[in-house]
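Here we describe the complex-level prediction in full. Unlike the single-chain runs in Section 2.1, the two entities below were treated as one system.
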Amino acid sequence: MDETPQFFEDPEGTQEALIRATYHALCEHGYADLTIQRIGNHFEKSTSLIYHHYDSKDELLLDFLAYMLREFEETVPEETSTGAVERLETILDGMIAEMNPAGHASFIRAMAELRAQGANDDRYRDHFTRHDRFFRERLAEMIRTGIDDGVFREVSPERTAALLTTVITGSLTLQATTDDPQAEAVREGVRALVDQSLLREPSS
Amino acid sequence: MDETPQFFEDPEGTQEALIRATYHALCEHGYADLTIQRIGNHFEKSTSLIYHHYDSKDELLLDFLAYMLREFEETVPEETSTGAVERLETILDGMIAEMNPAGHASFIRAMAELRAQGANDDRYRDHFTRHDRFFRERLAEMIRTGIDDGVFREVSPERTAALLTTVITGSLTLQATTDDPQAEAVREGVRALVDQSLLREPSS
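The structure predicted for the assembly as a whole is:
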């Protein structure tokens, strides 16, 4: 799972094309109605190429998720010149928000379906355990940096990161599965939490 | 959906027996592998009785969810002699916890699968919208009572209830779909949040 499949080690961008096709098919059909054929409809190369390498949509989706996580791991810098507060606010703004762009809403819904596979399928469960751990650890590092820089109070970085990860997961779940996710109220609540409990100097 | 199906208006406890059978089959098989036949295996009456009234497992599951919500609405008292703090702590302790009893864990997993149906199926989406709204409004009432009684600070009951509902949903999602839900850290984080932001006199 951590290795890039041989199929993907090509100079012609087949990997990226298949990832894009999977993303678009997932947004269009969701998980339950997704088939390799429907991914093929978004793929600029031959669908038989996908069948040749994947026996099931789940194998393909697990590679898709692993690819997305690797991209995420590579693009989120461990250290940054941007302040901890701004980085935290950017993450929270991006994830706890009423879903405006239709494509983003479809993707959040599809991801909620994929995550729910983890209830019974160990392969998905392993992926989301790894995904959440990475996300939580990056948040904890960010908070630790903020404490070192004197902008955050001396909270427990691990506990605070676990709480924020849980709020974000909860908000994404509510956005994906209900018509009234209360994202603005939650974002306001998290803002108050950051102001009152995390920031050294409470902002007004 | 709000009406009790005629099928259930029986003096012989058929409704309760079917609800119990659905509950046990859901815990044993999860949503994806559930069939009416498998529910029938847990049903003390004839499986053909279920087929006679339900064309699909989803219709049965939606009745099951509606029944559970009605029970929940009837058993949660609007006003109570128990203090707001104790009631809130009991709810939080019950929902944000490492899953010890195996049956409880299976049910939380099955509920996460049912909720994920809301990503694409309006019937499930309507149910969970209604479910979450009821839960959030009860929490808001509890907080309002706590403020009136002078035990809680003058927070926004709606915003605080939205945040707590989101944390609980997130924790249940993480418990259902990962091996490392960090429930104890999250429970500690929520306890600190209640102590620092909600309680009038912060406890030590």
